[in-house]
Amino acid sequence: MRNIAVVGVILLLAGGMLSCKKMLDVPSHRALTEENMWQTKNDARAGLSACYALMRAAMANENAHWVYGDLRGGDFQSTKRGDLRAVVENNLNASYTTMDEWRDWRRFYTAIAQCNLTIEKLPQVTATDYRYSQNEMKLDRSQAIYIRAFLYYYIVRIWGDVPLVTAPSDGVVKTIAREKWEKVLDYAAEEAKSCIDGLPWKYNGKSPEQQGDYRGQGESHHISITATKGMAYTLLAHIYNWKGEYDKSLEYANTVINNQSNTGYGFVSLDDLTRLDGAFRGRIGANIFQVDMNFDHAEISSTGQLEDWTLREPYIPKRESEIYVPKDSVLKIYSESREQRPTYFFTKMEEAYPIFFKMKQINGAVKDPVLKMYSSCIIVFRYEELYLLRAEAKARLGQTAEAQKDLNQIRNSRALKNVNVATAGQELLDAILLERRRELIGEGWYWYDLVHFKKIPQYTRLTQADVDRGAAFWPLSQEALSNNSALVQNSFWK
Fold first, then answer.
1. How does pLDDT run across 189-221, given as a tens digit for each residue?
2. DSSP one-letter code for 78
3. Contacts of 106 by beta carbon, 8 Å cutoff, 6+ apart
4. Percent of the residues in the chain that have a pLDDT greater than 70, as a whole number
């Protein structure tokens, strides 16, 4: 959304300058606190834009999305950086500045706080600015509700049990204990359901939920980045998948896939997935939900993108990448003879450190040979991933043939043969996990898949006893523990 980056920077700077006491380990001030705020349509727009901006800041900070979702699984290895090697080796108590950032959930709770405030305050704007209609308010408020629900789903997968904060802070110091993750996800699911009626399938001005050009922009501007019914249903499918309620996960995945005529979602070819200005540039039908990094809106950066860690000469002026996938691992993961993905996902395979080349959105408008600018979006949900999620739900519900059908649609789109018709039970689930690993590598899913499929002891050095003591989740930051006496560290990390 236009000017989200600017709004986000302003809010973060303002947040750092205000002196307030702390709730959780998050400053309890509001992101927008002026008495004359929340009076006009522009105020409403700024408040919602801040929700998107702060969500992005939390996910992109120090490449957090990929650190949480990929590095701990071990497919990627570190060349020299000790902090990245510590994550790969699951040494999450290591003493690095970046590790302090990754252990810290304040950015996520700042985004949640902004959502809480926006959800509460938007209705009052309709009374003070006649230009802000009830219809537009409901649409904006539904987006804030979606973002809050998504953020809770996101942090539960990282920290497990987390505090549940659902209303704006009143500035009074509070100690808030962690809630069981099941309760948090139940809340997120109900919130996701509640926002659906206020969201359109598309921002084309043809639905009662969204009329005319939304914020002065046509449909193409909003594809994949502005919350829709399809995003909300997809989020519900994932929430229930994480909870192990596969009948409900299947129900909501079916709702998305059966409404393809409304959503416009579809599969993406390997060429369109990986090319410059392809899926990772974004705003295409394969991306259900993405966090945008748009050159036109000054959202690009010279750091903070996965390319800054994975690429090297001759693509960027760096002699050695920070992370890579060893050649032996590539050959093991992509072992089938007709497999095409390594050709698209990797280059320099003959060298000691192959280059992970799936994302390479180096902005061509920047001519400086030293300062390269990256514009890859964070693809949160895409259509192929949803099909594999649905395949898992069907497999766990005993719908073997239907699960195979979904799995084979992905395999066939990648020139692979159908799985054997006798593949069922755990063997089928293993095939689905492997296909997720191959298709989604580098997109922030693999560690969560190991947690969900209960495969951590099989693929890492952590034992089942470690997992039982909380090793699957990140430790809380020391600042969080110091500022909120109600918090208790995961037993594994004490």
1. 999 999 999 999 999 999 999 988 898 888 888
2. E
3. 24, 25, 26, 27, 477, 479, 480
4. 88
43-52 residues labelled b (16+ CB within 10 A) or e (exposed): bbbbbbbbbb
Residues 392 and 432 sit within 8 Å (Cβ to Cβ): yes
Query: Residue 106 gets which letter from DSSP?
Result: H
**292-343 pLDDT, tens per residue?**
887 666 566 666 689 989 999 988 888 999 999 999 999 999 999 999 999 9
Query: Rounded to whole angstroms, how far apart are CA atoms 98 and 161?
Result: 23
- pLDDT band of residue 370 (cuts 50, 70, 90) is low
Q: What does the alpha-carbon distance between residue 420 and residue 411 come to, in Å, rounded to a whole number? A: 12
Q: What is the pTM of this model?
A: 0.92
The pLDDT assigned to 6 comes to 39
Q: Is it true that the peptide bond before 457 is cis, omega within 30 degrees of 0?
A: no
Q: Is 53 within 8 Å of 45 (Cβ atoms)?
A: no
Other C-beta atoms closer than 10 Å to the C-beta of 426 total 9
**Tokens coding 384:** 């192929």
CA-to-CA distance for 60 and 376, rounded, in angstroms?
Answer: 11
Is 227 in contact with 200 (CB distance < 8 Å)? no
Q: What are residue 17's phi and psi, to 5 degrees?
A: -90, -25
Residue 24: DSSP 8-state: T
In angstroms, rounded to a whole number, what is the distance separating the alpha carbons of residues 446 and 365?
A: 33
User: Do residues 341 and 438 touch, judged by C-beta distance below 8 A?
Assistant: yes
Distance in angstroms (rounded) separating the CA atoms of residues 26 and 18: 12
Q: How far is CA 393 from CA 160, 192, 345, 438, in A?
A: 22, 20, 28, 19
- C-alpha to C-alpha distance for 20 and 488, rounded to whole angstroms: 23
Q: What would the pLDDT profile of 390-424 be if each residue is shown by its tens digit?
A: 999 999 999 999 999 999 999 999 999 999 989 99
User: Which of 418, 444, 469, 466 has its CA nearest to residue 238?
Assistant: 444
Residue 170 DSSP symbol: -
- C-alpha 324/C-alpha 48 separation (Å) is 37
Helix (H, G, I), strand (E, B) or coil at 76: coil
Q: Please, what is the Cα angle at 214 between 228 and 289, to 5 degrees?
A: 30
- DSSP alpha helices (H): ranges in 173-326? 181-196, 219-222, 229-243, 246-258, 260-263, 270-274, 307-310
User: Counting Cβ atoms within 10 Å, is residue 299 exposed (0-12), middle (13-18) or buried (19+)?
Assistant: buried
